[in-house]
TrEMBL record:
This is Sterol desaturase. Keywords: Membrane, Transmembrane, Transmembrane helix. The lineage of its organism: Archaea, Methanobacteriati, Methanobacteriota, Stenosarchaea group, Halobacteria. It comes from the Archaea. It comes from Haloarcula saliterrae. The chain crosses the membrane at residues 7-26, 32-51, 63-82, 88-108.
């Protein structure tokens, strides 16, 4: 589960960065551009922190899990309410789903994480 959390956190962080950059390529409303920028930054920070902790052998912090899930939900709903046009809508829905799944997987790892999630990186490497 640790590797899944680490890699999904990394992919979700990249998706958050894509969300931040999308308004630069499409003509969107000012509120949508701000939402993508600000909420995307929070999601990127939270998911990168979760991926870092997973790669260090620690469980994701509860605050970063909640921030990633809430950010993913906001990013998922915002294009429907603020800028519902294709292809921006399709790209935002796809990337925000990746962000949301990354946050959910970090939360599942936090709840179900076993001994591997509580080992340090050196302890995990020594065990192989």
């Amino acid at each position: 589960m640790v590797n899944l959390t680490k890699w999904s956190g990394l992919v979700a962080t990249v998706a958050s960065l894509v969300v931040i950059l999308l308004p630069a390529f499409f003509r969107v409303t000012h509120p949508q551009a701000l939402t993508s920028l600000l909420v995307g930054e929070v999601a990127a920070i939270a998911l990168a922190h979760s991926a870092y902790r997973a790669s260090s052998g620690k469980q994701a912090s509860p605050l970063s899990v909640v921030a990633a899930i809430v950010s993913g939900l906001i990013l998922l709903v915002s294009p429907l309410l603020l800028s519902p046009f294709d292809p921006f809508l399709t790209l935002m829905l796809g990337t925000s789903l990746v962000v949301l799944v990354g946050g959910i997987l970090a939360g599942v790892d936090r709840i179900r994480g076993g001994a591997a999630g509580r080992q340090t990186g050196a302890e995990r490497l020594a065990g192989h």
